Amino acid sequence: PLRTASCRIDDPTTALAVSNVIQPVTAVNAGQSNVPMLQLGLRHPGIVGMSQVQVVGLSLMFVSGVDTLFGSSIADRVAVFRSSELLGQAIGTALDQRMVPVDLGSGLTVNPGAVDSLVLAISVAPGIAYDSFQVVLPDSALIEIRDVASGSEVAAVTDQEVLATGSVFPVVSSTAHVY
């Protein structure tokens, strides 16, 4: 009889639950570095046997009142951290657009049943010309998540264990007032 090597078949993961942990930013200074603006709670709703997911990128925008701004008019750097570990950043020409992409390189891997978080911090531009601004992640589709086993896209959904009704999207930071 012929035998093949044993293999493991994982259930694909279809969603990653996301919540917004409000950061109490109220005052920032021009040129201030690594100001935490958003914290995203991430929960893998799966069980043992399901595949891991990996958050590999996200896109965000800056707003002041009703105006969507170029990232470079607010920030010199947008960085995404897991605790104190830098996962990815947008600098230079990546900020010269209204929707700022942040590539997380090898990404953040979340195991089935696990909880983790990402903190989005900015370095405020020294020449900022606005009195106040907010950081916005307007839509769940702007968080790029992949199933580790298959490579297929995974949806970011509102974490119903944190927010019983409604939607976490759009995720909006507290208003930062510039001094």
Structure keywords:
eight-stranded mixed sheet; mainly beta; about 180 residues
Describe this entry's structure for a reader.
By secondary structure, the chain is mainly β. Helices cover 0% and strands 50% of the residues. It is built from no helices and 14 strands. It has strands at 15-21, 27-28, 35-43, 53-64, 67-69, 75-82, 85-91, 100-110, 115-124, 132-137, 143-147, 155-158, 171-172, 176-178. The strands form two sheets. Strands 2, 4, 5, 8, 10, 11, 13 and 14 form an eight-stranded mixed sheet that branches. A six-stranded mixed sheet has the order 7-6-9-3-1-12, with no helix packed on it. A hairpin with a 2-residue loop joins strand 6 and strand 7 (85-91). It is elongated and about 75 Å long. The termini are far apart.
Secondary structure blueprint with pairings:
Elements lengths: L14 E7 L5 E2 L6 E9 L9 E12 L2 E3 L5 E8 L2 E7 L8 E11 L4 E10 L7 E6 L5 E5 L7 E4 L12 E2 L3 E3 L1
Parallel strand pairs: 1-12, 2-14
Antiparallel strand pairs: 1-3, 3-9, 4-5, 4-8, 4-10, 4-11, 6-7, 6-9, 10-13, 10-14
Write down how many β-strands occur, each being a DSSP E stretch of 2 or more residues: 14
Sketch the topology as an H/E string, one letter per element.
EEEEEEEEEEEEEE
Estimated helix fraction = under 10%
What fraction of residues sit in β-strands? over 45%
Q: What structural category do the secondary elements indicate?
A: mainly beta
Query: What number is the mean pLDDT?
Result: 93
Question: Radius of gyration from the CA trace?
Answer: 18 Å
The end-to-end span amounts to: 77 Å
Overall spatial form: elongated
Sequence stretches where pLDDT stays below 50 over 5 or more residues = none
Distinct helical segment count: 0
| Main beta sheet | 8 strands, mixed
